[in-house]
């Protein structure tokens, strides 16, 4: 599974996604940005910033930032598989921390919804610098479609 | 398991812990504060702030904030069981999201290290508003002691 | 949390549960037996048997047996909280292996459903020899109520 | 990721692995057999047997059997990446149950060790009937190398 460069079509998708990502104040605060959007691999990114650091002696980004990035990527990877947005909530999320993120480097968080039912979405994702084949963290989770109000309510024509 | 009020002894512990918690820029950014410190239940808190919100329509705090809070509480719950600080890293963390946090309310994250070996620490925690018996999120994780440099290097006399 | 001795009332409950447990051929094969049934702690047990061993050099029971025991205990702990049986399925299950089970000893698997909604049950359990306060394995999981046929269809009067 | 047919070379590997798999009495009891062995995808299988059933009304195999199969596949996937066998233990294992296994059909459990350090092995696996691209269960776990005695002590020349 290799990461994709942004084609013009994807740049358009990316431009479209940014307002949805920033509908969440917390994603705005962290500086989460869209990077690429394929049906089977949706990627967000966070540029390195000092206030995101967990350990000031090493400069390594806090694990909670990685989790937030992957949780968001997982959510959007589900949207990529839906004909229209549905409200949903994270049921559970497992994070495996393989090694520290590299201080100073941009963090990419990619995810794919690998199983979708009328009620549930099973997702997995990876956090990396260069390639999802060399991740520093992995995520696995289950999301459930709810009857609440979705975060994003504007109708999005042609999610994919 | 009920939450404890802060006795003078615990207030002293709390005052001591604040500089260790804020050794992490990200914890400072989120506004993580110590709340109570018992050997079997270490509690951090985050007051509600608009920039922590995940869903602007509901005002519910972003799940990534809850994860960061519980990850920190888990780490400190391990310190409560050690005679002296040892460098460690999170191997994995599972978060169960039972219900949304209540908008506007302070979030408490408590944790306990329930199994400790020379190499590993098994932890669990809960995020709640009123009592850990009514949590809105749960955490379970495994941390490993490493040979790296710890986040906190000043010698802490009498961890407990 | 201490384990309970079986009172006459619980012996009756245990006698009632055995046929439900053995409705599953696999539970029969493993030799799963009911041990105690409280609303907040339902306990099954498996006596040590050579064919359950994972490592013949140590005689330690295979981890898959522990998982099957805890999965069953979790399921029944949910039934303890329901007015009547509902079909359900395991969504996910996390097992933490703290130390090996002791060869030769009976294994107890206790569980509690700590959060119940109309759609989901959040459960946790522990596998132990002497006390759930000294577990050798822990389980955390989420079950979902489905529209399929339940394993147990006879009407059970007074589940608790 | 598609499943592989057994070439003569792999048939030889499979013949070699059977005695290691059956070193575990429990794997023998379940009828676990080797199916294919690639460095990045090690596959075990269990043929359908009535005593493995969890729900007698549907004939669906018990989830604990799936877990045992995937736990074993994960362990062997780690051996595929080691120059020589090292003792190890499962730290934790997460199982996602996507849908029921199909009654009557052989179950395949494949796994890959996707990250290896001197102390840890991070693994993931899938249980399926036809292809790992259409799994009915997924596994993610962390194993730790220990100082105990390995299950398999005969020296295995050329693990791969």
From TrEMBL, chains A, B, C, D:
Keywords: Hydrolase. Pfam families: 4HBT. It comes from the Bacteria. This is Uncharacterized protein (TIGR00369 family). One of its GO terms (cellular component) is cytosol. One of its GO terms (molecular function) is 1,4-dihydroxy-2-naphthoyl-CoA thioesterase activity. InterPro entries: HotDog_dom_sf (IPR029069), PAAI_dom (IPR003736), Thioestr_dom (IPR006683). Signal peptide: none annotated. The keyword Cytoplasm does not apply. The keyword DNA repair does not apply. Residues 59-131 form the Thioesterase domain. It comes from Extensimonas vulgaris.
């Amino acid at each position: 599974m290799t990461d994709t460069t942004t084609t013009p079509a994807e740049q358009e998708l990316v431009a479209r996604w940014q307002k949805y990502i920033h509908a969440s104040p917390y994603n705005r605060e962290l500086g989460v940005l869209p990077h690429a959007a394929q049906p089977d691999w949706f990627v967000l990114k966070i540029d390195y910033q000092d206030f995101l650091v967990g350990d000031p002696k090493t400069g390594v980004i806090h694990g909670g930032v990685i989790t937030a990035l992957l949780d968001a990527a997982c959510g959007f990877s589900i949207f990529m598989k839906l004909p229209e947005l549905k409200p949903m909530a994270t049921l559970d999320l497992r994070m495996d921390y393989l090694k520290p993120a590299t201080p100073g480097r941009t963090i990419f968080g990619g995810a794919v919804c690998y199983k979708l039912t009328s009620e549930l979405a099973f997702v997995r994702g990876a956090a990396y610098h260069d390639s999802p084949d060399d991740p520093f963290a992995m995520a696995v989770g289950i999301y459930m479609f709810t009857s609440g109000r979705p975060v994003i309510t504007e109708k999005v024509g042609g999610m994919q």
